Amino acid sequence: MATPEKASPRDRLLDAAAGLFYRDGVSIGVEALCRTAGVSKRSMYQLFDGKDEVLAASLERRIPWYEAQLRPAEPEAMSPRRQILYVFERLAERSGDPGYRGCPYLAVLVELKDPEHPASAVARGVKERLAADFRALAEQGGARDPDLLARQLMLVFDGASARAGARVERLDDGLATATVTALLDAAGMRT
């Protein structure tokens, strides 16, 4: 990655967008975005059609990092049950960070409320991939109803993320992993 003073205007805009939108929400104005990035509005509009496109591109750019945070380094060394629990352990760890505001992709879906918005499409894709991963692991682990278990796991993930991001719930006490353990047991995923 380029150093901040060597980063291109595009990279500076995407970095600023990721930080601002995550911290303050998607209502941040173009002026604040450009000021934070150190890029003129004219340059921004030469690079992107508008703020919506910047938001979508910043979310897209962070997907590999975000998804890597939820995957073990060597998943093949873990059972499907253990891989699912790993996701919730990572969520609990991340939620303790002072700057944690919840899942950035869920936040965008909730804030925008527009399924046609380009950023909503990016966020929905991330959530759909996580659900598909949960479903595949549930199936591999012998869950009685992998589809239902994947939906339940998404509810716990998104609910825990949102509540921890709003600072109304703490996850460092094992609440999310205990809840997921009960779901895995009830679904028949013992190992």
Describe this structure in words.
Helix content is 69%, strand content 0%. It is mainly α. The protein folds into 2 domains: 1-61, Homeodomain-like (Arc Repressor Mutant, subunit A), CATH 1.10.10; 70-191, Tetracycline Repressor, domain 2. α1 packs across α4 (51-69). The mean pLDDT is 94.
Features:
Tetracycline Repressor, domain 2, Arc Repressor Mutant, subunit A, single chain, 191 residues, mainly alpha, DNA-binding, 2 domains, transcription regulation, Homeodomain-like_sf, Tet_transcr_reg_TetR-rel_C_sf, 69% helix, elongated, TetR family transcriptional regulator
In short:
69% of the residues lie in helices and 0% in strands. It has 191 residues and is mainly α.
User: Which residues form runs of ≥5 with pLDDT under 50?
Assistant: none
Largest sheet geometry: none
Number of helices: 9
The name CATH uses for the topology of the largest domain is Tetracycline Repressor, domain 2
Query: How many distinct folded domains?
Result: 2
What is the C-level CATH assignment of the largest domain? Mainly Alpha
The CATH homologous superfamily of the largest domain: Tetracycline Repressor, domain 2
Task: Report how far apart the termini are.
Answer: 40 Å
What structural category characterises the helix and strand content? mainly alpha
Portion of residues in beta strands equals under 5%
Radius of gyration: 18 Å
Summarize the amount of helix as a percent range: 55-70%
CATH architecture of the largest domain: Orthogonal Bundle
Characterize the overall form: elongated
Keywords: DNA-binding, Transcription, Transcription regulation
Protein name: TetR family transcriptional regulator
Domain HTH tetR-type: 7-66
DNA-binding region: 29-48
